[in-house]
Amino acid sequence: YIYIKNRVYNASINSTPYEKVFGLPPDISNIKIFGCLVYFENWNKKINKMDPRGTKGVFMGFSDESNNGYRIYSLDSYKIINSRNVVFHEDKFLFKMEQDLINNSKSWIL
CA-CA distance, 13 to 10, in Å (whole number)? Predict the structure, then answer.
């Protein structure tokens, strides 16, 4: 959260906090689309040689524990995982929002 907040424009200081401290515009090339499909490395010791090494998940944000990590919602274990070895598919989303035309309420579908 702080990582993103320091790289977003702040009207009270007329620039980004990162730019005020370092004097350079922030590099935002590593910021990914929230909610996109990701595959992260499977660290389970019980898998055999032919089992898949990647596990499907949803990108939830940046890890608080390390500067290079990502927070991933694992679709296998239904837990938040911190991982550095992640492959992003920013054009694919597992969750989409659908407008219910009958009662005009929003519902989430998988």
Answer: 6
pLDDT tens, position by position, 62-87: 877 666 788 999 888 888 988 888 89
pTM of the model: 0.67
Tokens 């005020």, residue?
A: 20
Paired with 97 in beta bridges are 108
Query: Which of 61, 17, 5, 15 has its CA nearest to residue 36?
Result: 61
Distance of alpha carbon 26 from alpha carbon 28, whole angstroms: 6
Which residue(s) pair with 32 in the sheet? none
State pLDDT tens for residues 8-61. 888 888 889 989 999 998 888 878 888 899 999 877 777 788 877 888 999 988
Selection from 32, 87, 92 nearest residue 60 by Cα: 32
Place of tokens 């992003």: 88
